[in-house]
Amino acid sequence: MLYAPLRTLIYIDSEDRPRLAVDQPSTVCASFADPVITELGRDLDRQLAELLDALGVDAGPWMLQRGGRRRTSSSSSPSASISASTP
């Protein structure tokens, strides 16, 4: 059984805009060092981006870049987060 939780946070930023922050699936899955699991994470990236797009939310182009990672903190945890906002 594979357990790879994706932390999700919905909040209001300092300019009173709703925000969504979620761990990037491909980065979490890459921590398992298994090519099959890593590809699953990339597929989840695409699905999450499509969901956000359908909701009218821009997740940013970096999410769909193959193997792209973005860290929001200097912690050593194997996760990255996307931050998306509504128009």
Radius of gyration using CA atoms only: 13 Å
Mean pLDDT: 76
Low-confidence runs: 66-81
Please indicate the percent range of residues in DSSP E strands (runs of 2 or more).
15-25%
Order of helices and strands: EEHHE
Number of domains: 1
Basic shape: elongated
Q: Report how far apart the termini are.
A: 39 Å
Q: Can you list the strand order of the major beta sheet?
A: 1-2-3
Number of β-strand runs: 3
Main sheet properties: 3 strands, antiparallel
Helicity range: 25-40%
Q: With helices defined by DSSP (H or I, 4 residues minimum), what is the helix count?
A: 2
> Would you tell me the structural class of the helices and strands?
alpha+beta
Task: Give a topology summary.
Blueprint: E1 8-12, E2 18-23, H1 25-30, H2 35-54, E3 81-85
Antiparallel strand pairs: 1-2, 2-3
List keywords for this structure.
87 residues; single chain; elongated; three-stranded antiparallel β-sheet; 2 helices; alpha+beta
Question: What does this protein structure show overall?
Answer:
The protein has one domain. It contains two helices and three strands; from the N terminus they run ββααβ. The protein has 87 residues and is an alpha+beta fold. It is 30% helix and 18% strand. A three-stranded antiparallel sheet has the order 1-2-3. A hairpin with a 5-residue loop joins strand 1 and strand 2.
